[in-house]
Hints:
By secondary structure, the chain is mostly beta strands. It has three helices and 14 strands. The longest helix has 17 residues, at about 5-20. The protein starts with a helix and ends with a strand.
Amino acid sequence: MPMKNSLLVRMLFSLSLLAAAAPFLPAQDAPKNFPAGKWQEVAAKNDTDNPGGVLILPNGERFVSGTKMVKTKDGEELADFLICPNGQTFTSETAKGGPHFPYVSPDGSLVAILRQPATKTGMLYIYYKGADGKFQEVKDVNQKVVELLQTSKNKKWAAAAEYALFLDGMTGRTLSATIVDFDAPTKGEARPNLKLKLQVGPDGTISL
């Protein structure tokens, strides 16, 4: 969800200080299942802040992702954040933070990122760039996948997709994902899981 303006200003100011002071690890080639780009991790300063890093696309655009304590009207809470090249910032509540690597299409118009707000959870967040150049969040991605599964041959996986949908990769506008059933009995060390492909349209519409 977009941050309130005052909170956004504080976050951007904190991030500017972070970029100036925190050491970056050497740039690494993204693994083969990531779109092209360089991921630079930032060394954490303490146990509560995990600044994550910066994904630098070939065209120079930067996506910043991390976890930070943020102030709210009720005090402070831990939040994952994603800052897009145009300055838009999106956050989500978390109890543990991460992972932080955003999957971004080579043209920078589609962004997907996995968040794990608690143990044994996988929440998928998707953002797409509209005609006005602004990013929009696809609301309730896990729930949308649940609804798609309920009318498919894999409907038995719908319940697990609500809280355990993990992002594996991106090719064009196709996302590779895995649903893990943490409630089912394990088979050896492996949890029952289902691989699936998600198609994301230019307007953020998701289909199987």
